User: Fold this.
Amino acid sequence: MPLWTLFGLLEGRQTTSWPLAEGNDGQSGVIGMPRYHPDLCREGCEACAEVCPTGAITLRPGPGEGGRLDVDYGRCVVCQLCTEACPTGAMTPSSDWAFGVSNRADLVWRVHPEPVKAAQGTARRPFRRSLHIRHVDSGSCNGCESELQALNNPFYNLHRLGIFFTASPRFADLLLVTGPVTYAMREPLRATYEAMPEPRWVMAIGTCAVSGGVAENGYACGHGSEGVIPVDVYLPGCPPNPAAIIEALLMFLKRSPQRVRGGQVVD
Amino acid sequence: MQMVYAWRPEPGQIELRYVAHEQPLEPFSVWSCRPSKPVPSLARIWPLLSWYEREVTDLFGFPFQDQPQPEPLVLLAGAEPAVPPFDPTYPAGVELSVKASKIALPEIAGAEAAVQLLPFGPVRADVLESAEFLFLYIGEAILHLSTRLFFKHRGMEKRFEGTSPEQAVILAERVSGVGTIAHALAYCQAVEAASNCVVPPRARFLRVLLAELERLYNHLHYFGHLCHTTTLKVGEAEGKLLEERAKQLNGRLTGSRLLRGVLALGGLRRDLSPQGWLSAELERLREAFAGYAARLEETDSYLDRLITTGPLKREVAFEQGATGPIERGSGIDRDLRRDHPYAAYADLPFKVALRDAGDAHARAQVRMDEVQSSIALVQQVIDRLPDGPIREPCEIVPRSEGLGWSESPRGTLFYAVHFDADANLARVKIKSPSFSNWRAFPFTVHQTNMMDYAINEASFGLTVAGCAR
Assistant:
C-alpha cells in the first residue's frame, strides 16, 4: 500500500504563483484572438470575411471610422482561418486570450477605446474572497468543461483564490454557462438560474454561450445564453483557457481590471 | 456491423446505408437500400443498430417495422416536430420546441411500492456535462437505469450541410471538444477518400503525433477522474496535474491546448516542430506516469473499488457495439489503428492493449497500457519524421462520397460524407464512440448497487457531447 500523502508531499508545490504574483500562467505558446490592424486592410479584399465560419468578420456596408470590417470577438471561435487568409497582415495571430468583458459591446472592434481603469467599485465586495459558482452545460462540445475542470487541478488550484464550485444552485452566487443553449437545455438552464438566491450573476463562458458559436442557426440551437437569462460577464474563446477563466472571474470580482475594450487589449 | 444512417441522394428519396466491419485490413462493407416503404428493424439481430434506427426515425421521419423501442431517442420526448429536422421542407432557422414531455420507463411487476425512481440530471453536481439518469432502485440496489443523453443535441450533422468543405474542418473539431483531432481527422480522411487526395508523408506522421497527444491527455484526465470517484485524493491531484502538463505541451506545440486549428483537408494547415524538445518533455511525463500507475496498481482501496465492478461480458460488449478501451477491456481485440490503418499507423508498430476481465479495473488497465503506447508512438514519430511538404490540394469531386475513420481515445469514430452535384456537402454522418459506449453502459448498471455507480461511470470515460452531437 503506497504512502500517497508522502508522494504528494515529495512532489513539492505544483501551484503557480500567477496571478497573485509574477509567475507562469501556463499558457506558453497558446494562441488567442486574432488582432485586427485596419490600416493594413486592403480595399476590395474580402478574404477574411469569406473564410470566417461564424460570421465574426463582416464587411461594413458603408465607409466609417475604424476600417472596412466589423469584427465581433463575441463570435470568434479562434480558428485562425482569417489570419491565414489575409494577404496583407491586417489579421494576425496573437496571445490575447484574456477577453472577459462586462459589456457585450466591448467585444466589437472600435477605434480609440477608452483606457483601462484600475479595478474599482464595491458592489461585489462581500464576495471578493468567497465566491461560489454553479456551472451549467447548456449544450457545449465539452471543450469548455475540460478547461473548467482544469481550474481545480493543482497547477491553477482555484480554491486558493477564494473561488469554489458548488453542487447546488441554492448556494451559488455566480452561474457559469457553457454551450449555445440547445432547445432541450433552455428550461433546465432557466430553472437553475431561478433556483439561485439573489443577488445572483451570470458569466457566459466560451463563444457558444456568448453568441451561439459553430452550432448557431440550426434546428436545435439558439444564439447563446443572452435572451435566455441575463448575462453579466462575457468570455469568448474556443474554449477559453483556464488562465482566461481565472482572469474573467477576478475581473468580475473587481480584483483585477478588465483588459479588453473595443475588441482589443488596452494595457 | 457498425451503424446504419440515412441520406437523400435525390429529393424525396431516402437511402439507408449499413456499414460493417468484416475482416481486418479489408475495406469496410457498405450495403445500401432505397426503400419505398418501411423496412424491418434489424435491432433484434444486431442490437447495436437499435439506436441508429431510432435516430433515423427521429431526424428523417423514416419508420422501422417492429422496432423494439419505438420512442424518440435523439429528440427530446415532447419535441415532436411537424416536419422532421432533416426533411428539406423543415423551415430554416427555426428551433425545435418542447411540449410537456413524458418519459416511458419499463414496468416492474410485483413489489411496485418498494421500487423508487431517482431522476438525476440533466444539471448534475460538479462541472459535468448535461444528461439525465433515471434509476429505478430498492434501497442500495439498482434494478434498472434509463439514460437521457440528448439534451445537448446541437444538430451538428445538419450544420455541415452547405458549409464549405474547408470550414467544415472547424465544425468537426467542435463536435466533441476532447476529441478534436479524432473528429477532424476522420472528417478530413473521408473527404480525402472522396476526392482521391494523397496526403504527404510528413503530414501523415504528424497526424499520428497529434492523435496520440490527444489520447494521452484524455487518458491522463481519465485517471484523475477515476481516482476522484474512488476517493483517492492525492491520486486525483496527481492525475489532473499530469493531464495539465500534457495540455501545456499541446499548447506549446500547436498553440491550442485541445490541439485545434492544425488539421486541414489534404494534410495540415501549418508545419509543427516537435523535434529537439518534445521528446525530453514526454520522457519526463512517461517516467512520472509509470510511477503513478505502479502506485495505483498497489493501492488496495483503489483496486477494491474497481475489481469486479461494472462487469461487461464479451458477448454483450460485442452485441451492443461497445468500442475502444471498453471492448478491449472485455477481451475484444479490435483497434482501427492496426486493423484499418490510416495516417502513418501502418509504418509505426505498436501493441494493442487488451484485457479479458471486463470490469472497471480491466477498462482502466487498458487505458494505462495505452498511455505508455501513445508516448512510445509519439517518440517514434519524432525519431522518424520525414521532411517534405505538409499539404496536398484537395479537389472536391461533385457527387462523390467517402468514408473516413479514426480510433479516438474512446473508440471507433466514422465520418461518412456525401457531396452534391455542385460539390457542396450534402450529408455528413458522424458515428461517435460515446454513442456506442453509452448504449452498452446500462448493461453494467442493471442489478448493481448505487455505491458502485459513479466509479463504474468513470471507468467508462465517456463524453455526452460526442454522443449527442
About this structure: The first strand of chain B starts at residue 3 and ends at 10. Chain B touches chain A through 75 residues (CB under 8 Å).
